[in-house]
Amino acid sequence: MVVTSPLPPIAVAIPVLSGILIFFVGKRSEQLRNRLSIAAVAVTNVIALTMLPGVLKGSIFKAHLMQITPRIHQTPSIWLHMRVDPVGLLFALTAATLWLLATVYSLGYMRDEHARTRYFAFLLLCLGWTLGVAFAGNLLTLFIFYELFSISTYPLIIHEQTLEAVQAARKYIVYILIGGSFILFSIVYTFSLANSQTLMKTGIFPAGIDFRILSILFATFIIGFGVKAAIMPLHGWVPDAHPAAPAPASALLSGVMVAAGAFGIIRVIYNVFGTQLLKQLGVGVLLAYFVCATIIISSLIALDQDNLKRRLAYSTIGQISYIVMGTALLTDVGAQGALIHIANHAFMKGTLFLCAGVIIKQLGKRNISEMKGIASRLPVTMTAFSIAALGMIGVPPLAGFISKWYLGIGALDAGEPLMVVVLLTSSLIGAAYFLPIIYTAFFQESEEKLKVTAKRAHQKLRPVALSEDSPFSLKEAPLSMLLPIIIGALYTVIFGVFAATGGLPLSLAKAAVKLFLK
Amino acid sequence: MLSSRPLLTMLYSYLPLWCVALPLLGAILVYLIGDAHEKVRDICTTAVTVATFVLVLLMYPPVILQRTAIELTLPILAQGIRFLVDPLGLLFAAITSFVWMAATIFSLSYMHHEHKRTRFYVFLLLTLTANLGLVLAGDLFSLFVFFEGLGFLAYPLIVHTETGEALKAGTKYLFMTIFGGLSLLFGILLLYSYSGSLALIPALETLRGAGYVKYAVSGLMILGFGVKAGMIPVHIWLPDAHPAAPSPASALLSGVMIKAGAYGIIRTLGAIFRPPFEAQEVAKVASVARHVQVVGKTEFLWETTRTLGYAVIWIGIITMFLGVLMALLQDNSKRMLAYHSISQMGYILMGIGVAAYLGREGAIGFAGGVYHVINHALFKAALFLGVGAVYFRTGELNMYKLGGLWRKMPLVAIFTFVAALAISGIPLFNGFASKTLLHHAIVEAHGLRGDNWLKAAEIIFVITGGGTLCSFMKLTIFTFLGKTPARYEKVKEAPVGMNLSMFLLAAIIILFGIFPTLFLKTFMIPALEYWRYPSESLEHLAHFHLWTLPNFVDLMPSLLVGVLIFVVGVRYGLFHLHFPQWFGVDYWYYRATIGFLSLAKGVSELYYLGGREVARVISVVLAVYNWVDLEWKTKYHQLLLAAVLGIELAKEREMIRRIEKVLREEVLPTEQVAVGREILIDMTRALVAGKRDGSEVIREANNRLTDVMSKYKRQRLFEKYQVEYRKVRDLYRVMEGNVLQRASDWVRAMARVAVEVLFVERVPWMIEQYYTEEEIVGTRNAIRAYARDMSLNVLVIVGMLLLFAVVLRFYH
Predict the structure, then answer these.
(1) By the 8 A CB rule, do B438 and B368 touch?
(2) CB–CB of B782 and A297 under 8 A?
(3) pTM, two decimal places
(4) Nearest-CA distance from B281 to chain A in Å?
(5) What value of ipTM does the predicted structure carry?
(6) Whole-number Å distance between alpha carbons of A429 and A406
(7) Which residues from A are below 8 Å from B167, CB to CB?
């Protein structure tokens, strides 16, 4: 059932307009700016949520906005067209919720940073464009929002304006724009081949097109979106951009922006080509094996990183490849696994990055080797970090386990037990790079503390002196930073334990699979 | 009465959930109470474990007496968590909650001087939740969830002391556990994908088409459970983790948690990898022809079970033998007990293996294995607590350094003796019954199938029994008998709580020892009935006579071997031998880990090397690209500057680049800067063009700069400039010769000063003071480059369109 509804364009417009408004408001009143940002993101959330029951029941919301190109002879006109289906809504809800967490977190994190108005304005703009990507009803709309999104991300990455940030942002934009040109090319060519651009459920190509051309077209699509989805060797910008950006921005980068690339690949696989055609082409499994290499190599590289954010960034590269792999398997369960992993990964990795932000802000520590015993100073943060990290490893009953379970079954359904081995090996390596952080933080004494204790013992003084700056005292972040972290960790638990409950990612993923795969 | 029935059933059906939830809620409560109210917290912890034990016992009437399994499905997680309490599960649940209760009571006094007690108690209760959930789980999914949970939750217990040694052991434990979990998960996923079901029911029939996959599945599952069970060769975490943990935790680890692995293997072999139950029911009622057909069909399926069983028998035999061998060489008593845990798990594995190997006739192996699980939980927990009590009072774990303690702590000595006798399989103690059953099982396996290798297995079994006896003679004699070292003269009896918990365990040990068939009748026969073993073999088992002469005679060789080893060992100091490093599996694991880490490092280095090379190529391309982008005027300036100033050094070149950049970029309308720039450009231009004399340029420049400086009252800068100027001027005066050379020196020096002036002057109107000039300029450049890159983008699109035009032309 297709319903015309004004909700999708409104959901895009609210953050975009408030983002523009913030440019003018921001200079005058900090408080107004903060309130406006939070309110805009919250309202966007509510709007996206109102579409949830309808979409779960099987209806699809759409809106024709404006004509982009006129009709020329046989070629139909192209509209700016929005369409909300389960996959899109899943992505949109994930993005909007994570954005809410990151925006609240930013209030605390950005307190003493410069150029806050610019930051908040672009933060909101990005949310609008993301929702546009999620709700895009045809390829050109998708592309327009995708590119706007890519470009609006630039100020967030370069925000700190250090040399490192400048270089990372430069790298980012070159990578992304080249990827964008691949996508544009593929879209134009798709348009000329299929004479249609709607994202239909069975694929849009008429029968009788040369398979070689379709394979090349598939490859250019994957290269285009693969740059953002950080498929190796197109991932170069990720490990630089993540550590350079402020923590809330890296959380969004990892949770939503990189996932946007995977989202594009999902659209290409299910909606542009269609599973039937891809099975005939035989490129799905090829892609799945290709990303398997990414999964393993990125995990191995992550193992060697000492900078926490860099390690997380490499982990993101591997995790997004899970999504691509699950999609490329072309099986029901694999697709479900891939789709829920978008949401699961977003919240888990988002929480991890936010925690990393707290560690940087409160203790000024960026490297894992310096993190001995920090759990006694940041107990809440490190507990949330541990939950999210265990989720990433795939420990039941947390969210990551559900993804792993579905992806594993999906791989076996596709007759590829080797991919399960890859999945599990990556879990093992994941454990090898996440667990040391947890146990150094919780079970080892910090060197400062040992030094002070030894000194005091030597001087025969009382063992502990509590002052503001002593290496023993609690140094937990303010509530605006803690709350998003706690909620993120809670999501990790809820998405795992109550995965089967309606309204959570799994139900949307199932609806999507029903729509596209059966 | 009638109406209360469904209510009762409903209450019963929620019992497993309560058993699992109660410790979880208790853990939350204990965490909330925390260190503030120590007494309340301790009472709370104990009460929760006692209540859990009672709740588990409440399930006895419906499950055992009424023979109805309790089922419950919770719609959480992806597949739903299912509980199914059958006699076997209940049995494990009962022993789990009982040992937990004893260990908790023990830890109240033991943990008194330890740090972070709240954490310990919280995780003690959480692991109880996981362990109970594991044995009450109704399908493989739920079982796996609790299995993984148990693995991770036990970690804080193992590393509780937080010493380096404990952390090392903990890490080893953690990674072995994860490895086992993943292997198990792979097995379960494969099973699910081939048989389409995760229930704990026979699945062999549905796997018939799977070929060798079924061996892969069962192998992976046994490996996964085996890691937890301490099966050789994946046992390596166990001898490190047990001594590192506090004694109550070691008692739980060894007594109960590793049994989770055994439980899993029992379920794998006994419930999943076997032909369907129904076959034999059908056979009873059907015609003879059908009977033959059905039996033929199941015979075929039994073949797989038998193969697996045979493999597990040998794994068990090897595990028990090597475990004892290593145990004999230990001096740390906890480490010795840990190796005995491995060895005793070997007994259990062998029992399970015999059960699978003999198929329908395997009831005795099954009974022996399960009985030994229970017995081992009791006596091993008692032993760990006993050693723990000794450690609590003396602070010493090395048994050779202790002695004569029975005078100081008689109760502890008695309880430890009881447990030691039990583990050695002496009559009147519980180990005797299960060991005899297991011995019968292996003999029967040999007798019924006629495999001669199994005769050898039996001999190893007997020798292992001797080794066990010997090693406990060692432990008890060196610890409790002989002379008391002087430093332990003031040692007191252990606290009441410790003795109470050991008393509980010892009482059950003796109870089971004196009435060995009590357990068989109350628990084992119903369990075997539930598992549809033929009634004849159950009859046989129900009337099993333990107290017969042949059984005692069978025991004799084992005892003799034990005493012999002890005498010879002590006489010739054999117990202090050490195997070469390469002999241990541990060494090879270590090597493998190191290898893996260096692989990761290698990959990472290769990656960065590749990255650097690519970056170099890109930077060359970018340099050309930037060069093309520059204005022709700038290019000209740069070239001339480079030529005139004779720049060979990269550093100088860098400086010129910077000057150039600042000159080019800086368009801010401040007078100072504008003037400074003017001067510099003038001078450069003049020099480059060679139109004016060097000295003239200098004088003029000096005047203008001095004007600027004085105007803005930059005293410090002015002085600096003057110094520099004088130096340069002197240089000019002194040096005769190549004017150009001197001038170029001067320009360099002046340029440095000027750049500095510019930089410092910029500070007030820069947004961020702490950014260097380079970064600001870099930012601006990057933003400009951003715009430029867009053009590159268009270029790429055009290029690709062209490429595709070519492709299309080629194809059409």
Answers:
(1) yes
(2) no
(3) 0.81
(4) 34
(5) 0.89
(6) 20
(7) 439, 443-444
